[in-house]
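README, section 4: Worked example with a bound small molecule

Sections 1 through 3 covered apo chains. Here we extend the same pipeline to holo records, where the ligand is supplied as SMILES alongside the sequence. The molecule in this example is adenosine-5'-diphosphate. Nothing else about the input changes; the structure line simply encodes the ligand pose together with the chain.
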Amino acid sequence: MDGIVVIKCGGSMIDSLSKDFYEGIREMQNNGYKPIIVHGGGPAINQLLEDLSIESEFVNGLRKTTDDVMNVVEMVLSGTMTNKLVRQLQKHGITSIGITGSDGGLMYAKAKDIEKLGLVGEITHVNQDLLFNLISIGLVPVISPIAMSSDSEDYYNINADTAAAAVAVAVKAEKLLFVTDVPGVLKDSKIIEQATTIEIMSLIDDGTISGGMIPKVMAAIHSLEGGMNEVMIVSGQTHLLDGSKINGTTIQREMEAVK
Ligand SMILES: Nc1ncnc2c1ncn2[C@@H]1O[C@H](COP(=O)(O)OP(=O)(O)O)[C@@H](O)[C@H]1O
Ligand SMILES: CC(=O)N[C@@H](CCC(=O)OP(=O)(O)O)C(=O)O
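The generated complex, written as structure tokens:
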């Protein structure tokens, strides 16, 4: 299916997405693009864990997920965050449907490293036909990054950047946009407008890229390796124009960069 744009909304800015952001999505639809949203919710998960005095830690940017932590992750992601986004989209005239990775067998996963990370999953399969069907009846899917094991026995917490990249590759999206609380990848407080995957790796090595930006750029790189052509990191305050020019950081494969 042509014209699919996967938009990952970071938990860092779901509460402060601008009117421009929603109008941009509506304009995309008017111009024939088909948006799919994958959302995070890290800060809200942190808050509820703290309120419930449940301890959690991050290992290489991923939340170590015990059974207790998983209950909270599912409550926040598939409850609060999905519904919040769906209501906002509806309010701005965009008909959307919230689904978790378990609904209709949308996403299957296996444990990444049960000893080190507990119930953190890595995606093994995305049911792209389910998404094509939802899009074809005019709905914008809003996906919570929780996925089941293939035998339906277990369920896993997936980093939302990783989930968005897997969805984008599976549906052969035209674009993948990581919407976050900064205007792009920054170096000395300035936006890097374009970077190759090798340049990104060296920005991680020299410490310019750190924290939550690491899973984001790594997911971007994996999606390029998986066949994506255009991957951008943009601000939640941006108007997501219908294609020509969006401000932010574009990450490219080496070959595109030398063309
Ligand atoms: N070089 C960088 N450029 C921009 N942001 C960076 C950089 N290195 C680290 N960051 C951090 O990454 C954060 C975005 O990641 P994260 O908080 O996980 O957002 P989200 O919830 O949108 O996924 C920024 O707010 C910033 O603090
Ligand atoms: C495994 C893992 O770390 N999962 C994430 C899922 C939410 C997420 O990724 O939210 P952001 O996009 O706001 O960071 C977590 O538990 O925080």
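What to look for in the output: The domain at 4-258 is CATH 3.40.1160.10 (Carbamate kinase). The chain has a mean pLDDT of 93.

Section 5 describes how to batch many such records.
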